[in-house]
Specification:
mainly beta; six-stranded mixed sheet; 15-stranded mixed sheet; about 10% helix; about 775 residues; 5 domains; Immunoglobulin-like; TIM Barrel
């Protein structure tokens, strides 16, 4: 490893492989030259700014056909430099002080990850000698352009990472001191407030409140008095709470509810306007309570942003999750960083307050099994990598497991039966047909910042696997537990998983993971919903926590089961009991038996429907990285008029739903397996017609033909892609919904019974199935 490179950026951290190219022989700092940027200091996330970066050549200069690279992290969603439109955003110029001719191009993947977003400057005529300069102006405003749009998330040391190939050998070397700025949050545009979701009477808990800037970053620029109003009797809740600048989060401790019931808190500003509503808290006598987690994301030591230490601190203090895991790509985790990561998880793990789960992401190519999350109950465990692709020291390469199958075999061979794995879909999606071992792999991840992947759960059903459902962020922006997509290729808010367990500890969470006693949501302020799912049986069933097909497991005999349970039911029927409590109105609850949609249950009646039409688009192009589906389109109404439009799941502020007139609408949108859309409120309930035009679906129909049942226009390819129209009530008051249904069971094989919940705000949730078999 280049010793100069090791000290770049955040100081001497020997576990961090800062190499950005093949280093054949290190060159002294004076020979490489140096770079400086103006202005420096702090800049607001997502704002426009202009910078001048000056590279001054060192002893060797830069030879004819030598090059300079200015690189940015993969995770950054800042505007791409462009060279053709002086009046446009992100206009960039590059000039050599001695008149050398430069060839300039922008390539989003022209360097070694994580520094793959590259401005490449090549000397094509002439050369530079010591003291000559190359001046790069980012975000030139001379001709009326707004400047360069900065990334939408915060970073204390955002680097313009400069690499030089001075001798034209294609051996790029990193400058030992890098130009950098700080990217900080803006003023709050919204507020979030949270309570726990399920607690016992008399247990102490906290109310937490924060402000968010327009890109979802927690803001330290909040101030003022906020009024707190309780639904239900919350002991110890003050009438007001103060927020002061400089703090990212405010909490009220020592709260308590003595009697069973539902409570929540509404937060109002000094003008009496509602700025936030908490999730509901259900208080009841129960053995199991709820803890929320985001167990999947990365920091800057691999391909994310911010340090691993900052990563866990954010999850605990700014995202308010109860548990967090760091899942760096294994081929980029050096032995030194693995040791440091173990020290960090040990430091942050505080049973009863916060769980830091040790682990990593096994990151094999899809053909070899695809990505898997690996979780350990304790530090000091062997990291069995998929490869050493970005690790120079190969002294531990003998522990590599180059396929997912070999990984599971290694766990079994070495007696590591306390390991828990998830299959997930990120860049490399998990192919569970290639490899799966139910002794270790307990769940599939159906949602993350990358999008929604219900097909992964459906694959498990087709293959006869018994797995649970989880949602996490796989966040790369240093915001585990509150990972918003910003303006990049990540198309969704990062998900959350709710664990039902008696206590908050690693042992309890891992036990819960093995029992699949959890459900996942698509995150955000509406994501902390309370879901209870229970199966009731006419006959007595044998209830298993471990899959008896593959493990020795002693059952208990019972007439009921919880989500995640595996039940052998020789005879008799099943009744499913469902209750959902949330802070956003509930649109639907879909009941599934494996691949079959059994029933859609809505909390309102057909007679409640009004003049509100939901336009819904959903889907992914295919399973791999480039799964985005473009839904840019327009709609027109004839014989009626548009009163208002409410966008749904428009996370990227660069994409919007615009009302052009009373009869025309236009939008820019994409999905990555998740869904988006809008609620269109019409002046008249059933008059006229609605025409919709998107790249995949073009349709026109009478408004009167849009009713209680979904009207689906299918454009499926490798994966589902479709547009859907549904009519909603003008006002939907249903934030609590409970019902039961008789479930018809298949006479043979598995009946994976689970639900999917959808809210008006665009949030979804999935429970782990109850597996009932004859």
């Amino acid at each position: 490893m280049n010793e100069q490179a090791a000290t770049a950026g955040h100081g001497n951290r020997p576990w961090e492989d800062m190499n950005s190219g093949v280093i054949l022989a290190p060159i002294a700092e004076s020979d490489l030259g140096h770079a400086a940027i103006t202005p420096s200091g702090s800049f607001e996330a997502g704002s426009y700014a202009s910078f001048t970066l000056v590279y001054t050549a060192g002893t060797f200069g830069i030879d004819d056909s030598g090059s300079l690279r200015v690189c940015f992290r993969f995770a950054s969603d800042q505007g791409n430099p462009q060279f053709d439109d002086p009046k446009g955003a992100n206009y960039c110029t590059v000039e050599a002080s001695n008149g050398a001719v430069l060839q300039v191009r922008w390539d989003p993947k022209a360097n070694v990850r994580p520094w793959d977003r590259t401005l490449w400057i090549k000397v094509v005529k002439g050369f530079l000698e010591e003291g000559d300069t190359i001046t790069i102006r980012f975000g030139v405003t001379d001709h009326g352009g707004p400047g360069m749009r900065l990334q939408t998330f915060c970073e204390t040391s955002f680097e313009f990472r400069v690499l030089v190939d001075p001798i034209a050998t294609f051996n790029f070397q990193t400058l030992p001191v890098q130009p950098e700025i700080a990217i900080v949050p803006g003023k709050p545009e919204s507020y979030s407030a949270a309570l726990p979701t399920l607690r016992r009477p008399g247990e102490r808990f906290e109310l937490k409140l924060k402000g968010n800037d327009r890109w979802g970053n927690p803001s330290d620029r909040c101030s003022g008095t906020f009024h707190l109003e309780a639904e239900g009797d919350i002991e110890g809740l003050p009438a007001t709470v103060e927020m002061a600048e400089g703090s990212f989060s405010t909490k009220v401790s020592g709260l308590r509810v003595r009697s069973p019931g539902r409570v929540s808190v509404t937060v109002k500003n000094a003008l009496g306007q509602i700025v936030a509503k908490t999730n509901p808290l259900i208080v009841e006598q129960t053995d199991l309570v709820h803890y929320w987690a985001d167990l999947h994301g990365q920091s800057e030591e691999t391909i994310g942003t911010g340090s691993a230490r900052d990563y866990f601190a954010f999850a605990r203090d700014k995202a308010w999750v109860d548990a967090c895991g760091h899942q760096g790509n294994d081929f980029q985790i050096t032995d030194e960083f693995w040791a440091e990561l173990n020290r960090i998880t040990a430091e942050f793990d505080e049973p009863g307050r916060f769980v830091a789960m040790p682990g990593y992401e096994w990151s094999g190519n899809t053909a070899l099994g695809g990505d898997r999350n690996v979780f350990f109950p304790n530090e000091g465990r062997t990291i069995r990598r998929s490869s050493h692709a970005l690790i120079e020291d190969r002294s531990t390469a003998h522990t590599d497991c180059t396929t997912a199958g070999k990984l599971f075999e290694a766990f079994a061979e070495h007696g590591e039966h306390d390991v828990v794995c998830y299959a997930h879909c990120g860049g490399r999606y998990a192919d569970i047909a290639v490899a799966h071992d139910g002794r270790f792999e307990k769940s599939v991840e159906v949602h993350s910042s990358w999008g929604t992947f219900e097909w992964l759960l459906e694959d498990a059903f087709r293959l006869g696997y018994r797995v649970g459902v989880v949602c996490n962020s796989d966040g790369h922006k240093g915001r585990p537990g509150a990972s918003y997509p910003g303006a990049g290729k990540f198309g969704a808010i990062g998900g959350l998983t709710c664990f039902s367990t008696a206590e908050l500890s690693r042992a309890a969470l891992l036990d819960c993971m093995r029992k699949r006693r959890h459900y996942g949501t698509t995150g955000g302020d509406g994501g902390r919903m309370v879901i209870r799912l229970k199966g009731w049986f006419e006959g007595e069933g044998a209830v298993y926590h471990d899959d008896p097909k593959i493990m020795d497991s002693a059952p208990s005999l019972a007439h009921e089961a919880l989500m995640g349970d595996i039940v052998h039911l020789p005879k008799g029927g099943m009744e499913l009991s469902v209750s959902v409590d949330t802070n956003s109105p509930i649109i639907r609850v879909d009941i599934f038996n494996g691949l079959e949609l059994v029933e859609t249950v809505r909390p309102y009646l057909e007679s409640d429907l009004g003049s509100r039409i939901r336009v819904h688009w959903e889907g992914a192009e295919y399973r791999g990285r480039f799964r985005e589906v473009i839904w840019d389109g327009n709609a027109s109404v004839s014989g009626n008029a548009v009163e208002s439009v409410t966008p749904v799941n428009f996370f990227n502020r660069d994409k919007s739903f615009d009302r052009v007139s009373e009869s025309e609408l236009a939008w820019k949108a994409l999905t990555t397996g998740n869904f988006g859309g809008a609620d269109i409120r019409l002046r008249e309930r059933k008059a006229g017609s609605l025409r919709i035009d998107t790249p995949l679906v073009k349709t026109e129909m009478l408004v009167s033909g849009i009713g209680f049942e979904d009207r689906i226009f299918d454009a499926s390819g490798e994966l589902p892609r479709f547009l859907k129209l549904t009519r909603l009530p003008d006002v939907n008051p249903h934030t609590s919904f409970a019902f039961s249904r008789k479930i018809e069971l298949k006479p043979e094989g598995d009946n994976p019974i689970y639900i999917r919940v959808e809210q008006e705000d665009g949030t979804r949730a999935w429970t782990s199935p109850i597996y009932v078999y004859r």
